[in-house]
Protein: 5-methyltetrahydropteroyltriglutamate--homocysteine S-methyltransferase
Organism: Mobiluncus porci
Amino acid sequence: MSETTPFPAATIAGYPRIGANRELKRTLEHYWSGKIDRSEFDKEVSDQIAKRINHLKELDLDSPASQPADFFLYDQVLTLTCALGAVPQRFGNLVRPDGSLDVDGEFTLARGIDDKAALEMTKWFDTNYHYLVPEIGPYVPISAVANPWLEQVKVAGEAARPVLVGPVTYLLGAKPTPDSPAHYNPLQRLDDVLAAFEAFLSQFAKAGVAWVQLDEPGLVRDTWSAPRAEVLAAAKKAYDFLGKLPNRPALFVNAPYGDLGIDGRKVLADTSIEAIGLDLVSGAVPSSEDLAPLSEKTVVAGVVSGRNIWRTDLDGALQTLRKIQEVCPKISVSTSTSLQHVPHDATIETSIDPVVRSWLAFADQKIEEVQVLAKGLSNPSSVNAELTENARILATRANHPEVKRAEVRAATAAVTAADRNRAPYAERVAAQEALLNLPLLPTTTIGSFPQTTEIRKARAAFRKGEINEAQYDEEIKAEIARVVKLQEDLGLDVLVHGEAERNDMVQFFAEQLDGFATTENGWVQSYGSRCTRPSILWGDVSRPRPMTVEWSTYAQSLTSKPMKGMLTGPVTIMAWSFVRDDEPKKEVADQLGLALRAEIADLEAAGIKVIQVDEPAIRELLPLREAGREEYLDWSVGSFRLATGGAKTETQIHTHLCYSEFNVVVDAIDHLDADVTSIEASRSKMDILPAVHEHGFERGLGPGIWDIHSPRVPKLDEEKDLLEKAVGALNPRQVWVNPDCGLKTRAYPETVATLKNLVEAAKEVRQEI
Ligand code: GLN
Ligand code: ZN
C-alpha cells in the first residue's frame, strides 16, 4: 500500500465515550431496566455517536484520520471479542448463524444471565478501567463476523480513524478456557486473529478509511503469562503479516501506558507499518540514537498525558517534540493514552477554586493542548501567547502556599521504620482470637450495602440545601440501623455499617482531607455503565478532624458483634484520584498514611476492634515493567504499614483487594501484613488458591464466593463449592467467608438472597471440617 494520506499533525489516542453528561450510562441503564426499547436504544446510541463526532470536529479534529473512532457500547475489548465471534461455548445459544451477536448478546457476555457467569473483568493495564477478559481456548471460533467501527466511519467520514485493540494485546489479555491443554497460551491463536484483522482491514480500505489505529499496550508490560521474547516475536509476526497486506489502510500501532523499550521499538520499526505511537509521559523520551530506527516512520508522540488532569508544560513538551523531530521528521502530536481516563471538560467545574481550576486540563482542554503543540512545532512564533499564558499558570501552581506545607513535611520526615511495624503475627492472632471470639470460617462483607434511592435522594437534597445536616445525619443513621439489623438477622459474624454516608470510597475521604479538590461532573468510565469521579489531590495532605468515627461508633452501639471500621488505604486514595505530578509518590503516600494512622487511633479509642483498610488499587499502580516494581512496593506497602502500624496488637486489621491476580502481587499482599485479606475469587473460580498455597501465605484470607459485579444470585451449592475449594486448599482456620467486593452496586433482593446462602454455606462447610 502507498501512504497517500499523511498522518494528521495533531490527534488524540482516544476520547471518552460515556458522554459529558453520562449519556451512555443513562441509555444503557434505561435499556437494561426496560425503560426504553431496542429501537429507542439504537436511536439514542446513534445520536450519541453523531454528537460525539460533531463535538470532536468542533474541537478541530476534522482533518483526515484525526478522529479516533472508538465509541464502544460497553468495552473496547468486548467489542473486539464480539467482532471476532469469539464467544465462549456457554453463550453459544446467543450466536446468530453468521457467528455474530446482537447487542443483547453482547450485554449478556458482559453481565451474565441465569446460571451463565459473565466474562471475567480485569483492570486495563495500570488504570482503573476494567475490561472483559476474552476466553480464548484452542477451539473458540475466531473470524471477522462483524465490523462495528464502520457505523462511526460512515458518520465521521474521512476524519475517522478506527481504533482496535491490537491482535497481540488482545490475546495477551485473554485467558485460556478450562478445556485448554496444559501449556496452551491464547497467543497460539494469533494466526486466526490475524486472518480476521486482514478482513477488518480490507473492509476499512473499502470504506475509504485512510488510517487504522491498533492499540498494543501489551508491548509495554512484562507479563507473567508469556516471556517478553515471546510477546515481541508475536508482535513481529503480527505486524510483518499485517504490514505486507496489499489491501489495507495505513497502520498506526500505538503503545500507550508505558515504555515500548528499545527492543519493542525495534520490532515495530522493522515491519512495514506506517506509524508508531510512543507514550512519552509514562515512558522515557528515547535518545536520538534510540530513535534512529524509527526515522522512516511517522512517530506519534504522546506528550500530553491521557492519565492525569494537569495542564501540560507546553514549553517542555515542545522541546521534547523538537528533539524527536530532528531524527524523525514525520512527527505528529498526540496524547500518551486514550483520554477515556479523564473527564470531559474542566471549564464546567465551577465549584473548584478558580486558581486550582486554572491548573486543570480535562479531555477537551487536552485536545486544545495537542493542537497548540502541533502549531508550535510547525511555526514556533505562532503560539507565543499560548506559551506565555501556560507558563504563568504553571507558576501559580508551583508557588501556591498550600502546595507545600512545612508542618506536613516535618511529620513525614519524622517517620521511622518502627512506625511501619506491628507486633509479630502470632502474637496478634492470639490476642485477636481472645478478644473477638469468632467461629471457624467467620462470615463478613466487604463494607458497603446497596445504596438505596432514598439515600441518594437524601444526599442530593442535602447538597441542594433542601434538608439540613441534622436531618441528613438522621437518614444515614436510620439506614445504618437497618443494615446492622439485617446483618444480625442474617447471622453474619463481623458486621459493617454499610457506608451509606459515602458517595464514593475515595471522594468521601478526599472531601474531608486538606489538599484535595472534588469535581461535580468529572466522571470517568470504570466499566460498562459504571463511572467514578476521581478527586484531585493537588496539595499537601492533612486530616483536620476524624472522618469516620461518628458513624462507626454509632453502628457499634447497635450490636454486640464486632463492627468493622472502614477506611480507604493510601495507595487506593492515590490510584483513584488524580494525583499531583510535582512531588514523589512516596511523599504523597506517607502524608495519606499519617492521616489514616490518626484515624485508626481515634477508631480504637472509640472502641472499634476490627478495622478494614481497603487497598483494591495496589495492583493497579504496579509498574508494568519489572524494573521499578521494587521501588513501587517499597513506598506503596510502606504507606499502608504507616497507616496501620500504630494499631494495637489486639486490633484486627483487614484489607481488601478487588481482583484475582493474587500471584502477581502476593509479595505485596504478604508485606502489607494485614491480619485478614479479602480478595476477588468467584469469577475466577478460586484459581488464586495454588498461588496462596505456594507462597505459604498464613494470615487470614477471604477469597470471595459471590461475584457482586453481576445481578445474578448464585445458588447455595455454587457458593458452597467455592468455599469448599478454599477450605480444601488452605488451612481452614485462615479462611474467611465473604463476597468478592462491596455491595453498593447491587440491589437488596439479590443481596439478601445471596448473603443468606453465604451464611448457610459457611454453616454447612463448618460441619464438614
Ligand atoms: N469497602 C468498600 C466497599 O465495600 C470496598 C470497595 C472496593 O473494594 N472497591 O464498597
Ligand atoms: Zn473490591
Remarks:
- The first strand starts at residue 67 and ends at 69.
- The chain has a mean pLDDT of 96.
- Residues 446-448, 499, 505, 566, 614, 616, 656, 658, 741-742, 744 surround glutamine (ligand 1) (CB under 6 Å).
- The two ends are 67 Å apart (CA to CA).
